[in-house]
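Handoff note, outgoing to incoming analyst
You'll be picking up this chain. Sequence as last confirmed:
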Amino acid sequence: MASTAALEVLQSAGRRRASRREWLAVLNRAVRTPRGAIGLSIVGVVVLIAAIGPAFAPYPGNAFVTRPFANPSLGFPLGGDVLGRDVLSRTLDGGWELLLMAVATLLGVAAGAVLGVMAAYFGGRWDTLIMRIVDIVLAFPQLVFALLLVSILGPKIWLIVLAVAISHARRWRG
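Most recent structure output, in case you need it:
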């Protein structure tokens, strides 16, 4: 009898393990298609440029190095902006912020999903408590909420990531 119970436990663990790996199999099949490979390559190049771009920017992102609205040239491949800053340097310099905002969005979606699952699973008082907290956050528009956090704690990059994460978490709750 004990061996039958142990066999059932092992079989259920195998089913759980198989379902955990199922998304990897789907991702693997998608990457093997031409469209999937091209899409993954494009995403990889964008992430790589965003990650290492600031190291290869020819000028600081806020340096006035050319005349305003300068046309593209050998020295400035993308030209100049309205204030005379190099557009290529500004683009390469701002890539890591794009990655930070992507991480903030993922954190917000994950937090909202966790809160939604918790509220649904526990129900009752927990659901009411989570819903009231979400209602309070929903009462503030995103920009006002971000300005509130920045005015209280100062202009820090982690604070902007937190504000974006919180503003996205409230959308994904139940």
